[in-house]
Amino acid sequence: MAEFMMRWKMGSLKRAVFICRRWRSQLQLCHHPIVACIPKNTPETSRRFTSTSNPNNSQAPDFHSWNKRISHLIRTGRLSEARMVFDHMKYKNTVTWNSMISGYVQKREMTKASKLFDEMPERDVVSWNLMISGYVSCRGRGFIEEGRCLFDQMPDRDYISWNTMISGYARIGRIADALCLFNSMPERNVVSWNAMITGFLQNGDVKSAIELFERMPKRDSASLSALVSGLIQNDELDEAVRVLLEFGNKDDSREDLVHAYNTLIAGYGQRGRVEDARHLFDQIPCHYGQGKEGDGRFKRNLVSWNSMIMCYVKVGDLVSARRLFDQMKERDDFLMEHHDQWLCSYFRYGSSLETLSRNA
Questions:
Q1: Domains of the chain, CATH where assigned
Q2: pTM of the model
Q3: Nearest by Cα to 234 from 276, 204, 199
Q4: Which residues contact 349 (CB under 8 A, 6 or more apart)?
């Protein structure tokens, strides 16, 4: 085993494993000393490979532990080590293959991901969706066509398959293809509708986005927030307010719409329309109660207060910002960190600390 130890210390792990397999008859005797001599800074895959190198191990393969190890290595950016573990495994299940493919997809290494996908003995819907999402995320006509080719070959599709392709087409401006897929869906969920609405907005088709939103059989706060956000990006703030007030008040499910309100307040603030932002801010209930205040609906959160205060700060109205700040019952680190910035803004806009003290 001298050659084994030499290769090990030199970092030639693959060669060491090869030598170790040649000495199978001696492996069980030297198993524990080998583990003991492994340096602490050796990668986890290297330190543990001997735990399954024993050919006399008659136990059933522990898929969970191995798959968990591969996932951990991928999450921590050690893709090559994850592949080493993958290659060392004698038995693999579908989760093992999917984990390794997912690692390559995350790194946009689609050639390696595709090679593994082709080698899989069995595939499930997750395997197909991983490859499709990988090609779609790479963008470009060639990649989207690869994704569509796999989509057409799928034996069974789920919502994720359809929604991924719809979003992919919309992102690169092929809204007609996205709409064709959307209309071809046997069943649609809320995510499908949201993906199509977002696609229209990304391509500047505000009218179609609103019409599709109005056709939705069931909406949620995410749908309304997505529409409001898209309208703001298309500089349609007044239309966003109309949609928010009309459909938000019409909704009997009492969805938490505060995110949509906050998005619109921030949009007004970015354009210097502070009065419009404040008008909208005042329409968000202050308290979460069952009486008149709030009426059991959503309430202002810290983001609401922060957004409105920063609207004032951006236009130099630090007096109003300070007044609103003093009305807050809860404050977070964001506002405390920006407190000094407010003071600097007073000097920038010609105000003084005396003005702050007099009007606070």
A1: 62-157 (1.25.40.10)
A2: 0.69
A3: 204
A4: 316, 318
Which one is predicted more confidently, 24 or 133?
A: 133
d(CA 216, CA 193): 7
Percent of the chain with pLDDT over 90: 50
Residue 248's pLDDT is what? 72
For the stretch 259-293, pLDDT in tens is 888 989 999 999 999 999 999 999 887 654 443 44
| Dist CA 38 CA 245 (whole Å) | 66
The residue with tokens 């939705």 is: 216
HEC string of the chain? CHHHHHHHHCCCHHHHHHHHHHCHHHHHHHHHHHHHHCCCCCCHHHHHHHHHCCCCCCCCCCHHHHHHHHHHHHHCCCHHHHHHHHHHCCCCCHHHHHHHHHHHHHCCCHHHHHHHHHHCCCCCHHHHHHHHHHHHHHCCHHHHHHHHHHHHHCCCCCHHHHHHHHHHHHHCCCHHHHHHHHHHCCCCCHHHHHHHHHHHHHCCCHHHHHHHHHHCCCCCHHHHHHHHHHHHHCCCHHHHHHHHHHHHHHCCCCCCCHHHHHHHHHHHHHCCCHHHHHHHHHCCCCCCCCCCCCCCCCCCCHHHHHHHHHHHHHCCCHHHHHHHHHHCCCCCHHHHHHHHHHHHHHHHCCCCHHHHHHHC
Residue type, 11: G
Average pLDDT of every residue of the chain: 78
Span 12-20, average pLDDT: 52
